[in-house]
Amino acid sequence: MSVAALQVNARAMRVNVHAIRAIYTFELARTWRTLLQSIASPVISTSLYFIVFGAAIGSRMTAIDGVSYGAFIVPGLIMLSILTESISNASFGIYMPRFAGTIYEVLSAPISVLEIVLGYVGAAATKSVILGTIILLTARLFVDFTILHPLWMIAFLILTSVAFSFFGFIVGVWADGWEKLQMVPMLIVTPLTFLGGSFYSINMLPPLWQKIALFNPVVYLISGFRWSFYGVADVNVVVSFGMTLLFLILCAAAVQWIFRTGYRLKA
Amino acid sequence: MQSIISVSGLTKTYASGLHALKSVDLDIRRGEIFALLGPNGAGKTTLINIICGIVNPTRGFVLADGHDIVRDYRAARSKIGLVPQELSTDMFESVWGTVSFSRGLFGRPPDPAHLEKVLRDLSLWDRRDAKIMTLSGGMKRRVLIAKALAHEPQILFLDEPTAGVDVELRRAMWDMVRSLRQSGVTIILTTHYIEEAEEMADRIGVISKGEIILVEEKTVLMDKLGRKKLTLHLRQPLASIPPELSGTELELSADGHELVYTFDAQGKRTGIAGLLRRLGEHGIDFKDLQTTETSLEEIFVSLVRSRS
Ligand SMILES: Nc1ncnc2c1ncn2[C@@H]1O[C@H](COP(=O)(O)OP(=O)(O)OP(=O)(O)O)[C@@H](O)[C@H]1O
Ligand SMILES: [Mg+2]
After folding, report:
1. Which of A116, A171, B60, B69 can pair with B10 through a Cys bridge, CB separation 3.0 to 4.6 Å?
2. What is the pTM of this model?
């Protein structure tokens, strides 16, 4: 290999660490500014779920797969919050600079797609993981539960946070108005999560609906996540993990395409 | 001298089908102040945004300090600072926070001393902890300049830096631009104001309808701009200009009622006195006279016309 080629390689490999850190800390700082919104509101809504579904209704429900109803809904509730928060944080994070016009600076900076994404998606995913942990601790105040496979639990938590932060990033690039920004979490993700077995086992559905449910990607996330807690799953955990990874890869590919073509970022 | 920016055959067609740039060639010399003049919609911002990586070129290429802005974008962009035309800033961030962010974004390690100097030079140091949304428009403009200078660029683009800026601040900005040039920074600015270009620039480029129609040393262009017209409204129409008077910069209107004399207002001798005397000798009488400056607009028009 020639010296020139080596130099080109070295240059291509040089990572703009300062830029990643700048975006990442800027985005996390936004969380602290809007602390109430970012952390407190999901915690409050989760507590309400536990009071209603866990304590009030749950006391009349029989155990599912040998797990008390209150404990059964914990993984689903965490997933529900992580999904919505990852999407709204990541979409807001990139939509805001587009809307305010400050995106010009990121586009004109000596920084690669990977670095931009590490900054924005990384910060959104970090928030989601922190949020998931907080909800987990909050849930502990209401119900008793065990985590059989903690490493898998963490893997699912992180993978899901990253995948849906990617998805949120795409939504934030695609949206051309505030309505669209809120539409995706409201109209797509919340229904899919509710229908995805947050509050029940897919096996409790009539056979036809069980088949239909398998087209809902959230089913795999919740099933896999619940398995890491209690060792019981609606679908095989390997399939769950594979589907989560697949979703992540698809989103990452879409982001790569967005930056290559400049879709909705560059005229 | 090697040019620091070299634009070749740059073409931009927006998704709407609008041809914003039509095969633009332009070379910016290292260390100069270059003013890009042109009417609204001429393509100034499009040109700058392509060089800075904000708009995708349709065809053509640009080298910034020898680096291709697409293939070698990292090296190219780290040399460039941009002050955009629009006042787009983060609302909730502090002045200090936003300039630190800019420096990091452009890959430079923190340097509080440099940022302090930039903020002091722009009279923003006292407001460093203020939220940007609490600043006035002129201050926000300066914050954008501070952000662009945070990473110590060698090339600075100022897209209409003095739009909506009062006279005092405008002078301060001109001073700042000059001192940046002193320190070796190449500056490209766009403006609608001919005085601004006259005050600041070493060279002036004129762009119209996506084409660079002229690039000239300022002094040369100012000579052209410094020309005035004297219009004499004649009492009796003339069939033609008497031969003894023609050859000078004298024109007769189609109806023969007006004589137009073009002269250099900055020259030592305008020739007006001589002209009037000779008109008297030929018994050409006039009832009124007026002088007008050649406006930038007229220069545009004549340039565009002379090309087509
Ligand atoms: N994103 C875009 N999509 C479509 N057309 C655009 C876009 N941006 C600019 N244009 C068009 O391209 C042309 C050149 O615009 P540009 O902003 O480059 O002009 P300008 O010389 O900077 O004008 P001004 O002095 O008003 O700032 C205009 O006709 C404008 O309407
Ligand atoms: Mg413009």
Report:
1. B60
2. 0.84
